[in-house]
Each structure stands twice: as C-alpha cells, then as structure tokens.
Design brief:
Blueprint lengths: L4 H4 L5 H10 L15 H24 L5 E10 L3 E11 L5 E11 L5 H15 L5 E6 L6 H12 L12 E3 L1 H14 L2 H12 L7 H17 L15 H25 L9 H16 L6 H28 L5 H12 L10 H30 L11 H11 L7 H7 L11 H7 L5 H11 L21 H4 L3 H13 L2 H11 L1 H6 L1
Parallel strand pairs: 1-4, 4-5
Antiparallel strand pairs: 1-2, 2-3
Helix pairs in contact: 3-19, 4-5, 6-9, 6-11, 8-9, 9-10, 10-11, 13-17
C-alpha cells in the first residue's frame, strides 16, 4: 500500500522539487536556505497551468468527433465536508478511453437539488459540450430522477439523444453491488462482528471485497482448527450453525465477487464487459433463491430483485455494447438468451437488432451530411483547386444509385462475419482502431457505445461500502486550486501520468 503524501513526500520537500521539475519553474528567493518553492507560488503556478490546459481540454472536447458520457461522484473529507466530482468519459481519436474531470468543487452544507444540478448544468454550458452529452451516470443515493431530468432537458435543447430520453440516465453497477452485498451481510451481521475480532482485532473493514476475503480465510482457519488455539481463547467462539451461515454467504457472494473483479478491475472498463458477468450472477442467484433453505433463499431473492431492476433499466445499453464486441456479436446474445430464457422480459433481445440498426442508420446519415457540407465548402472555395467533379463521395453516391444490386451495409457485413476466438486480454478498442478503414461508420458508433461507463467508480474504489474520502492535503487547498489540481491531473497524457505515479505513487498523487 502506498503511503499518503504526508508520510513520504512533505509538500515543502521532495514533492515540490518533483513538481518544480515537471512544470519547469525556478526556486524562489523566499524559500529559505533550501531554495524551495513557496506554497503560494506553487498554488499560483497550478492555477496558471490549469488555465492554459483548460483551453486545450475545452477545444478537444468541443472538436471531439464522438459522444461524451458524464458521471457524477460525491466524496467526503471528515474535516471539510462533501465534494462533487464531474467527469467526462469518451474515447479519443487515438482510440484510448479518457476520463477527464471537468469540475471538482465543495458541496456546502446548505446544498439542495437546485445547487447540485445547477452546478452540473453550468459546467455543461461553460464547457460547451451540450451537443456531445449522450447520458449521465450517478449515485442513486445523491441524485434523483428530477435532478437528472433537469440536465436531460438542457442537453435535449442541443441535440437529439441517440438512445432516446428514457436511456439518458445510467445506473451505477458499483452502487448495485454494494447494496446486494449489504443484503447478504445483514444476514450474518452479528457473526461478522465476531469474525472481525478474530481477523482484524475488532477493526471493521470498509471495503466489501476485504470483508468477503476475511470471511473465506476465517472458514479456512476453522477447517484447520486454528481458532481452538490458546491465543483465541479470549474471543467468543462461533458454533457449527453460525459457521454454516458464513459458508453459505460466501458461496452466495462468489459469483458477485468474480463479476466485480472482471468489471471494475478491467484495464479498459468499457461497457461490453458487463452483461456476461451479470448474467452469471443472475443465474447463481436464481439457483440460490429456489433452494429449500429458510436462511439463504430470502437473501438471494432480495439480491435478485435488485439485480432484476438494474437489468431492466440497463439491459438494452449493455446488450448493444456486447454486440460491438467482435468476440460476441449477436451470436453471444442468442446463445445466452437460449440458456437464460426471457426471465420476464429482463433478457429480452427483440429490441437489440432494431435499435442497433436505427443507431447505425442515424450515424450513416449524419456522416454523409457532414461529408457533403465539407465537400460543398471545398467546392465553393476558389483557392481550393477542386470542383464538384472531383468529389469522390458524390461520385460514389451516384454510383450506388445507379447500381440495382442491393448493397450490404457495414453493420450487415460485421454481423455476418464470424466471431473472433475468445481472449481474456482482448483489446477491443485496439481492434476497432485497426478496423476503421473497413468500418468507417460502424467504428464511430462503436466509439459511442463502448465509452459508456457502467460505474461511477472503478478499481478498488468500487468496493467501498461507506462514502469515500479525499486526502486531508487536498482538502486543505483553496477550492479553485483543488479544482485545478484534480482536473489537470486527469488531463495528463498517459505517459506523463505514468511518470508522475511512478515517482510519487498514484495514491500520493490523489492525496495531494
């Protein structure tokens, strides 16, 4: 585990030298004998860098030939309050997934819904991205449908939503998993407290994957008779029925834990990876809900109810993204539906082909119109050296009209081709980048569908069962400096970010 900034890199010491080297400014005279940069000068330089980079970032988002999905996260600092983090998720022209923080600011104690969505809408307007936003993913404990509806209304004034207004709000998979795990843990809450005494000496764990791992280890120790040793005599022992309940809960959470690792810890957490793992969880919960066990069945049914609700809201988006995986396409959906059945409409595949076709037709039409506008602009430019007869697109269009044979679309060709062999480390964005010449329209649609995040948070942050906290060092900054630091660091090119993280550690960078 990486220590915090306060532990390894005091702000007045090495961290300043690193940052000074990165931003290329000289020491000030007021830094004492050590020649260190003053705090005020460092913060001023952070704001200067942010101002310059924000112009570049804003231009990049404005000129983006693609879609943006927004996520709203809420973090807490015990000493300073609550903070709102607004992030833009998109796939850049280099086909790398980007997650750019575009607003990080404190939420005051007197906040209300007007403040929350007012802040988001102001940010959308300031960044001029209303015509690019296709959806928003939020934590349901902070943002209700009315709040999201206000943002949706603003966006709809700028553009027609590709999947319709009913698909604008996306639901957080990490939030779903947290609630499902809490349902499971409620069944053994008292037992878990005593296991904590064994495993953690009474210190509670705030990440559910850690709790799950501790429970499994406790079961292994019990099987080996470890808890009968003298050093554990001070603890109240669990009886056989209690250990059986722990075992049943661990079995119930096995598929959920595997799915969480696959979804949240993926190198590229794009939307196509989610459905197949959730189907595995669904099948496991269905099986557990129908067993004749008065303890585990009610818990499994409660968890299944939450998962069904999530899938009813998110299934179409996840299914379409799955089709964009050349390892799956429609063949995977047809196979999985045959195994799972309709499940009361939860896994209803009937709308998937028509929705993909409609999206493809819209993209194809828009691309043709854009190309025509560019061609017209060139033909009207007296200095361009071009005329109407040199427009390749117009010649192609006329040729297509003259050809009586039906032309297959890119979508038809893609779906008719066989699926690729399965690979755990398949680089889906790299594949689509390489196939752009073959699928110029469909690849643009893939960029939109694959950039949709399935969770507000990923990696280890997705396992928290309590509100996550920011470092005290970051919280001590003025709000404008804090926003500058959080935004600027997310805009760093991957190679620069890697160098910074290798020097001071990712956790240290966040805590700063």
């Amino acid at each position: 585990m990486v220590a915090s900034m306060e532990d390894v890199l005091p702000l007045e010491g090495l961290s300043v030298r690193i940052l000074r080297k990165l931003i290329g400014i000289e020491p000030t005279d007021d830094g004492g004998d050590s020649g260190e940069l003053s705090i005020a000068a460092l913060q001023a330089e952070c704001l200067n860098i942010y101002g310059e980079e924000r112009v570049r970032a804003k231009n990049a988002l404005r000129d983006l030939d693609g879609q943006i999905t927004l996520s709203i996260d809420v973090l807490r600092c015990p000493a300073a309050g609550v903070y709102l983090c607004l992030t833009a998720h998109f796939i850049a022209v280099d086909w790398n997934l980007r997650n750019w923080v575009i607003c990080f600011k404190p939420v005051f104690k007197t906040f209300d819904d007007d403040y929350l969505y007012g802040t988001v809408m102001k940010c959308i307007t300031d960044w001029d991205i209303g015509n690019k936003v296709s959806g928003i993913i939020v934590d349901s404990s902070w943002f209700d449908d009315e709040c999201v509806g206000e943002v949706k209304d603003l966006v709809q004034k700028k553009r027609e939503l590709p999947l319709g207004p009913e698909m604008f709000r996306l639901h957080c998979c990490a939030d779903l998993f947290k609630l499902m795990v809490q349902d499971a843990f409620k069944g053994i809450s008292e037992i878990m407290h005593r296991v904590d005494e064994y495993m953690n000496f009474g210190r509670p764990a705030y990440m559910w994957n850690t709790v799950y791992t501790n429970l499994k280890e406790a079961l292994e120790y019990e099987a080996k008779g470890e808890w009968n040793k003298n050093e554990y005599e001070i603890f109240e022992k669990l009886n056989s029925d209690e250990w059986k309940k722990v075992e049943e809960i661990c079995k119930l959470l096995h598929s959920l834990h595997n799915a969480a690792k696959a979804i949240f810890e993926a190198k590229q957490p794009t939307a196509h990876i989610c459905l197949r793992d959730l189907q595995e969880v669904h099948a496991s919960l269905v099986k557990a809900s129908i067993v004749s066990d008065d303890f585990i069945s009610p818990i499994a049914r409660k968890m299944l109810e939450r998962l069904d609700k999530y899938l009813k809201n998110m299934f179409l988006i996840l299914a379409i993204a799955t089709v964009m995986d050349p390892q799956c396409k429609m063949k995977y959906l047809e196979f999985s539906f045959a195994g799972h059945g309709a499940n009361d409409g939860i896994f209803d595949s009937t709308n998937v082909p028509t929705t993909i076709q409609s999206l493809y037709d819209d993209y194809s039409t828009n691309l043709l119109q854009t190309s025509k506008r560019k061609a017209d602009s060139i033909s009207r430019d007296p200095d361009s050296g071009c005329d109407d007869n040199s427009d390749l697109l117009q010649k192609y269009e006329q040729s297509a009209k003259d050809d009586n044979r039906p032309l297959k679309s890119e979508l038809d060709l893609y779906l008719e081709e066989g699926v690729l062999p399965w690979s755990q480390n398949f680089d889906i964005l790299g594949w689509w980048r390489g196939e752009r010449p073959k699928y110029p329209v469909l690849s643009r649609l893939a960029r939109y569908l694959l950039c949709t995040p399935v969770s507000v948070v990923t990696s280890q942050d997705a396992y928290f069962t309590v509100e996550r906290e920011i470092g005290g060092r970051l919280a001590s900054l003025e709000s404008d400096v804090m926003n500058a630091v959080m935004c600027s660091r997310s805009w760093c090119p991957p190679d620069i970010k890697f160098k910074i993280c290798s020097l001071i550690g990712d956790a240290a960078l966040f805590n700063f």
